[in-house]
Amino acid sequence: MSDRTLDLDDFSDLIERPHGGLRRDAEERRARTALPAQALGRLDDLGEWLTAAQARVPVDPVRHPRMVVFAGDHGVAGLNVSARPGGTAHTLVRAALDGTSPAAILAGRFGVPLRVVDMALDCDPAELPAEVTRHRVRRSSGRLDIEDALTAEEADAAFRTGMAVADEEADAGTDLVVLGDLSVGGTTAAGTLIAALCGTDASVVTGRGGDGIDDLTWMRKCAAIRDGLRRARPVLGDQLRLLATVGGADLTATTGFLLQSAVRRTPVILDGVVSAACALVAQRVAFRAPDWWLAGHASSEPAQAKALDRMALDPLLDQRIAVGGGTGALLALPLVQAAAELAALLPVRAEDDAEETQDAQDAVSEDDDANAPTLDAT
């Protein structure tokens, strides 16, 4: 690892908004099709968003999506804040790898490769493939209500891992990431981050989790978030320290991944409350970063709604999915792909199309992904 200090302020300079001028060009191109205005609803908006993200008119269809899932256990799960016993997130990972989890089944159905990154699972690394465990920074994150989830060094390593994974995906030609998470106790950490960043009480953000906890478990979870908030509020001005204090390794890596994906101009579909919490932290680092993300769905977690509202992200679907693991984000993927196909293939007046395409590509040649600025994650 490099000895260079990780300065999150660099992201504000490196992250640019998607190409707004080309979004206007996409609107004009759409107006020259045979379909009436607004006939495709949000699909038109998605097509224009992808056009701006790709800096290309007409937009390219989404051909190489990838599902990336960060996994970890959280010490706070030992307080029985989840329906699952603490330290058992590795069983969720095994189901995903075996293709039996809801997200893995959908990923297989949609032909989306699945990548799982173990950041802090509480199991012997030998129980899982080496490509899954090679980035692990510790065995379970600390108990956020009474101790830091990570040391400063572990937080730095986890954040850099997220950046490195984003670079690997961009270099491999991934044109859209479906983001997921697998954890036990992760929604408690996410709720703590969102409550701290939104300035609200623990009870407002405490949900039932993916397994539908009972009232007594909900009260324990609310108390854990309340105690975590007391520890989080003094470090709100330092996002990396905030993640180390109450976030944990998987959430810290996800935040680094989101920011570096924005640097590399890779669009991301967010999943549930955990990815929303990480996105909210990332927004505090670089205010332009949310322009590169879509909210895949509205989950049953109240904290997610608060985070998405703060970032002005409108979920594509509202199926009240609580299972996590990227399931809701995957369900949104066909909509995004459909929007890209329509934006790319709907015919327009032939005399305008060829000239427009050449002018647009000339105007953005300097935005080629190969020359995109990047932070060094190594």
Share in β-strands: 5-15%
Whole-Å distance between the termini? 5 Å
Strand order of the main beta sheet, please?
2-1-3-4-5
* CATH architecture type of the largest domain: 3-Layer(aba) Sandwich
Total strand count, please? 5
Fourth-tier CATH superfamily name of the largest domain: Nicotinate-nucleotide-dimethylbenzimidazole phosphoribosyltransferase (CobT), large domain
Q: Main β-sheet: number of strands, strand sense, barrel status?
A: 5 strands, parallel
Average pLDDT across residues?
A: 90
Q: What's the CATH C level of the largest domain?
A: Alpha Beta
> What fold name stands as the CATH topology of the largest domain?
Rossmann fold
**Contiguous helical run count:** 16
Class derived from helix and strand content: alpha/beta
- Give the CA-based shape: globular
Tell me the helix content.
Answer: 40-55%
Could you list the spans in which at least 5 consecutive residues all have pLDDT below 50? none
The string of secondary-structure elements, in order, is HHHEHHEHHEHHHHHEHEHHH
Number of domains: 2
- Work out the radius of gyration: 20 Å
